[in-house]
Amino acid sequence: MQVYNQNQSDSGYQNSKPTCSYCRDPEHRATDCPHVASDWASFQRLEIPSKDPTHWTHNPIQRINGQRSWNTQTNTARWYMRPDGWSKWYAECEKAHIKQQNARTRQAASGTTRRASKCGFCGSLDHNRRACSKMDAMFDRLVSANQKWRQRFYDKFVTELGLSVGAVVKVKQQQWNRPDKEHIAIITSVNWSELSMFCDKNDRAGYGKRVDNKFQQLLSVTVTVNGESRTMKFGSGSGRSQGMLSDSDGVLIDCFSYQNVEYIETIARSETPLDEEWVTQAHRESLLFAVKKYSLEKLEDWNVIRLLEIHEKA
Predict the structure, then answer these.
(1) Mean per-residue pLDDT for 193-200?
(2) Rounded average pLDDT over 128-155
(3) Opening angle at CA 23, ends 19 and 24, nearest 5
(4) What is the pLDDT of residue 123?
(5) Are 123 and 295 in contact (CB under 8 A)?
(6) Is the Cα torsion angle 59, 63, 67, 71 positive or negative in sign?
(7) β-sheet bridge partners, residue 169
(8) How far is CA 147 from CA 77, 231, 276, 283, 299, in A?
(9) How many CB atoms lie within 10 A of CB 37?
(10) Which residue in 65, 158, 169, 186 has its CB near the most CB atoms, within 10 A?
(11) Domain locations in the chain as residue ranges
(12) Among 267, 260, 265, 269, which Cα is nearest to 180's?
């Protein structure tokens, strides 16, 4: 899906997950950080908090998807435990301590209690996202449906059509006010690692029912034609029927990169077909990213659940 692939390619300055400004845990903010009070108490006793072998700096949380590579608890802990980082640690702990004091003062002045936290996925007040059984179940459904989609795509694209890197194909290119021109081409690349059921944006159901742009994923097949690089589409026609790749169970692809030529037939099958492990892998990391980043309500609003149901039944 585009939002995941963009997140992976970002340098880390965009789409990064917010973290606690004190300990860099992405699950809370400095005003709620459970480490501040005990660390500050250690400093008041003129002790370095990490002298305790059970302290959080000895077992820091590892980096997660969407978090800047340098903005992690691991890096923070490593710096705090060095003698030349102790003054910085003291200053950061003091800032966090003041934040927590100010937060308590504001809460007392308003006469209200802190709003109960709720699950970021299903909205329940009984648990957080980490313990959400609905999120886990949705992830399992997405993985299963995407495995099914990848198997269908593999059966069509690789097994039936013989397409992968190295395949020789016949293509045609539209020409203004002239008959289409046919060429022989060689496939040089396919964006295998990015492909998922989100290559089907469900455009045929109408604009209001198709999956949101951020989840749509393009199929990009690059071919060499007469020594020049071109991209290839499948299917012909106009309007919503243009550029679809289908099998007996329905549409597989209706999202293509900008197309220069159109596939006609395979002349010589690829001698290096894709390994079927690609099917079972199912692009799990992108699906986990989706359920951890977005709520069930958002996934429904953006027609992700609608698309999931289509490919569960296919």
Answers:
(1) 93
(2) 94
(3) 25
(4) 92
(5) yes
(6) positive
(7) 185, 266
(8) 39, 26, 11, 9, 19
(9) 13
(10) 169
(11) 10-115, 133-313
(12) 260
Kindly indicate the confidence band of residue 85, based on its pLDDT and cuts at 50, 70 and 90.
Answer: confident
Q: Which DSSP state fits 22?
A: T
Q: What letter does residue 61 receive in the DSSP assignment?
A: P
Query: In the structure encoding, which two tokens stand for residue 115, read together?
Result: 């709003």
What's the rounded Cα separation, in Å, for the pair 185 and 302? 38
Residue 5's alpha-carbon distances to 1, 217, 250, 257, in angstroms, are 6, 9, 26, 15
Q: Whole-angstrom Cα distance, residue 291 to residue 294?
A: 6
Beta strands in the chain (DSSP E): 168-175, 178-190, 221-225, 228-233, 245-247, 250-253, 261-268
Residue 128 · residue 140 · CB < 8 Å: no
Helix (H, G, I), strand (E, B) or coil at 2: helix
Structure token digits, residue 222: 């690059």
Phi, psi of 217 (to 5 degrees): -130, 130
Residue in 72, 139, 68, 141 with CA at minimum distance from that of residue 294: 139
Q: Which single residue is written with the structure tokens 């692809």?
A: 253
Token digits for 118? 């709720």
Evaluate whether 13 touches 69 at the Cβ level (below 8 Å): no
